[in-house]
Design a protein that fits this description.
The structure is a homotrimer. Chain A is an alpha/beta fold. In chain A, 40% of the residues lie in helices and 22% in strands. In chain A, the strands form four sheets. An eight-stranded parallel sheet of chain A has the order 3-2-1-8-7-6-5-4. In chain A, α16 crosses α17. Chain A is elongated. Chain A starts with a helix and ends with a helix. The interface between B and C is large, with 46 and 36 residues.
Chain lengths: 437, 437, 437
């Protein structure tokens, strides 16, 4: 139904990782060394989409050599690479010269005589402008396809959104993509390029750090949904800040932006892993405005921070959150704790719930209550909590995204099977592949 | 002037509540019991718009019976129901079969032989896609109107925004609604459907809770304004969390989204009440980043939290907010407290200010200072504060929205007169009906 | 390349300040006194764009006199005024009568017999609606130009965005501006009018304060970028709240909205100054979620708040942030402090870094590490920190915006040279004028 699940011209419904590699290094005996290293990656270190980057990552005077390097390295190693390969060429909405150079580089990389084209899934076009500029790039790729006898639309086109004009163009894709005078159905990824977007918007921050741009991330995700494409967030500059990178991904996922740019194999591992559900479920508590995860100890979930305290009193309990202290009966405490806590389900938990709902549906029930119980321990006082959540068809479908993602990954990335089984166990993986639809 | 105040095809300028009810229950002797119960509501428990929900709230195999139930129950009780009645039928941008079923259900519900149509104000169409899909739904309703000899556009059409495509379509309404080849002037409510929107956007949160989607709420409100329609926020799942529901409404109102979905009569009461000004005005203080309301005691407004403290010293005052402590003169303290406090006016306060401004305007003045004074008490130290706010025509008009809302409610909901008078007093209600153009 | 740097029809690439003045005061012997006072401003007190405001700032019955006053005062003093002059006339998307009055006022102000037109740079049109309404205003200005033999498009047109319809119209500018049947290339500023926008959106806040409208600010900035225009934020009502006004500007700059409305000469000074880099650089520390600036004392940067504490222990250091306390080695402490601190560069710092990168590029290097070192002192414990940041062409260009802004200001505002030199020193100013591009 949904264009993304029709898999139209591309195989993947989801892309977690978009990993760029310089195509040519000055002053190195083997100027393609980084390309050779990247194409050898596999498992959790290999991205879903690998981008030999003949634009910003490569010095301007090395880009002709870079294009040649891409052709050579992909011809050699492309057959074994587990992800898709989408080289980035140069392009600029304001420069016909740059566009012509990008076109020439595509012609070179795709030349069948070089032997790379059978492993190339598409091209990444940076610095696009309004929809007419996107059509120019599409036309260049169409000419490449015809020059070499490839099928119309067989090469995907992904773009980097790094201008206000491109941001507006995204709202016109759905209508433009059906037009017989273009092949825009080849569109694949909408990738945000925050560094150049910041420049185009002329934004300033006191420290020179990148603005968070929440609205661009929303607009990209919504446009991807409307046009059946896949949204990807831009690079996270501070490559040592693993925690910050993961926080950004969690934020993005709540916007429907499940993919992110990776600059290093370490970032690739984090980005391949982050959108998948955790191995073990755990409880969160709202500690005076901050979500804190509880530690499991002897079957109880223990809070050990300073923002919440709990003591038994003669006639019940005294619960203190921040500077608010209240006297509660056992029942009231139960209600209060239900309000403060939330459970983060593991992949196994999600599979269990889905199987349970599917069985109920089979038996003719439209909605069932899922119960979740736990012992919560604060300051040595342990309280049993238990809550019911009603599941109906809508809940079932809305919570299915992590499973669909998992299935897409498992289907397209056999090189990650071992890792996934090690994380989740064979039983959970097998059941996860069978629930849903 | 404004399309919304022209009241075009619909009567209501404002809709506070959008209340859905299942249309048929499996295994119940009277499968329409919930419909019968809902159509009997009145006063603060009755919604502005009641939606017999023949889509998600009703099991798929019960929907034919549901359509029949709607016709029967509305025929019986529709004349007495104090709000508008807009049944929701099935529809899906990706499924011609579902669209055809929805069309058949509309034909059945609207059949004059069933006696319901004179009480039906319109239909709610879920899961719409791009603007062309909206036009298909419009056309189905036009055919229903012609089949039964109803006037063109007499049935309103409300849509649920639950896809990126629909989000984009909202920017095209203003231009499309004037086109003679459709009857899109029948459009009434733009309702956000966050559960299915989350699914369509493929968003994930760790706990499975709904993302907040601030941008969709803005886009819906702005599109409603541009096209002369009314924006309504989606359901708030946690029906026991009354405080959270009210916080969500306050947030929405700052976005111009004055209506919200209600799942229970209790939620209806909250949602009918929340956008109206309070019965009594009160003061807020900024307690180290959190707005806290002060308690009135013996004519003074008392702060009793721990985040602000105040003491008299030999040469003035020491004010401590969080960990910042400053020594202040009486004048400086007055300034500081003016900065920290804000007044939330009651309906009576707003009416007073408007009357005062109208009298000044009558007397030839374009701007007047409104004075607001209070005694603020912290740690037993009481300080008199007083501030002037300049009111001009723009202030007057911008602050008029709660009054216009009140007048719209009072005019269209006689069944709430008694409640409104009990809350605000007869005098305030009468004056509120007379201020403002 | 970029339309904004092509300078198309207008001279300025940046506008920091948009200062409105009433055009006629009731009951004053010289009803144009405020206009005369404003046109005499210069230096940091004079705005980039001065707006004699014949709409909201002037009483309705004084507007004919206001138009005459504008012509008279600008004829007298326009030659000496250091900024651009763009009078605001009346206009309303819903009122042909108001539009006709605005047209008449433009005809009067621009009449060559009045001698003002050679100093008038354009007009500001409030309350615009959809793109067709913008075209009507454009056409009125075209007729004014033809009536008086002015060149097509020589009068700029700026609009106030104060309706959902205008918000949507901004996405259509790029395509409309190339159309030979209009002169929309005259567009200059997109100014947000939050007070009337709030009214149009029918938004409510409990205290009657303005909503923050982050999405409108984003949409305006993005549309300005897409269409080669300049975005400006609306008025900040609380004219005594200098700190709040500056915080709003810092927030806006991160959205690419570098200009803001000013209601008083004091606000003009703040708004002229705020987007330029500081005179002296300084360090920030993340004190448990709040960014706090450190004080320089004897060469060290000292934190003196209560949220972070640091002590030496037998085997290293104990760092406490909020209620989290950790034992760290010297190396770990260094890493931790690097993560918590950030440097805000001065204009001189930015010039230094850019010169250094330009020299490296000249010498054939594509990327260099910029080192920033400092002594950070907490609770008397002093720690040396040092970090490298890689600069490549993209970093260089993204961080260039403050310099481009500075150069634009320096070029167009000779009356501010003295102030700028006093702030930054002659040496830094001269070097700032030479780096970049």
């Amino acid at each position: 139904m949904n264009m993304r699940t029709d898999k139209r011209l591309h195989d993947r419904q989801f892309v977690r990782t978009f990993f760029t590699t310089p195509t040519a290094e000055t002053g190195d005996a083997d100027s393609a060394k980084k390309l050779r290293s990247a194409i050898g990656l596999s498992g959790m270190q290999a991205p879903d989409v690998w981008v030999p980057d003949n634009e910003d990552a490569t010095a301007p005077n090395m880009r002709d050599e870079g294009a040649a390097n891409i052709a050579e390295v992909v011809a050699e190693g492309g057959a074994e690479f587990p992800g898709e390969i989408h080289p980035r060429v140069v392009w600029h909405r304001d420069s016909p010269e740059t566009r012509y150079t990008g076109f020439q580089h595509m012609l070179e990389i795709a030349d069948p005589e070089n032997g790379a084209i059978e492993h190339i899934d598409g091209f990444v076009i940076p610095e696009v402008g309004d929809i007419d500029d996107w059509k120019k790039a599409d036309e260049c790729i169409t000419m490449v396809e015809h020059e070499y006898g490839l099928e119309d639309g067989s090469l995907a086109m992904s773009v980097i959104i790094e201008s206000g004009a491109a941001e507006q163009a995204m709202t016109k894709l759905r209508a433009a993509m059906g037009n017989p005078s273009n092949n825009l159905q080849r569109l694949f990824l909408l990738v945000i390029g925050e560094v150049d977007y910041t420049k185009d918007m002329r934004a300033i921050t006191p420290t020179g750090s990148l603005p968070a741009w929440p609205e661009v991330r929303h607009n990209t995700s919504s446009a991807a949904s409307a046009a059946g494409l896949i949204g990807v967030d831009g690079p996270y500059d501070d490559i040592r800040d693993v925690e910050g990178y993961n926080e950004r991904m969690t934020e993005n996922q709540a916007k429907g932006l499940l993919g992110i740019w990776s600059l290093t194999p370490t970032q690739v591992v984090e980005a391949n892993r982050n959108p998948l559900p955790p191995q073990e479920g755990y409880w969160l508590i709202d500690a005076n405005g901050t979500e804190v995860s509880l530690d499991e100890q002897d079957g109880a979930w223990v809070y050990s921070g300073d923002d919440i305290s709990l003591e038994e009193t003669d006639d019940g309990y005294r619960l203190t959150v921040g500077s608010d202290s209240t006297q509660l009966s056992a029942d009231e405490l139960h209600q209060e704790l239900l309000g403060l806590t939330e459970y983060v389900p593991s992949l196994g938990d999600i599979v269990n719930s889905m199987e349970e709902f599917e069985a109920a549906k089979e038996a003719g029930k439209g909605a069932i209550a899922m119960t979740r119980a736990a012992s919560i321990s604060i300051d040595g006082v342990t309280v049993e909590i238990s809550s019911d959540r009603m599941w109906d068809e809508a809940t079932y479908q809305a919570l299915q995204t992590p499973i669909t993602l998992f299935q897409d990954v498992y289907e397209h990335r056999p090189d990650q099977h071992e890792d996934l089984t090690a994380i989740y166990s064979e039983d959970v993986v097998e059941r996860a592949m069978n629930v849903g639809s």
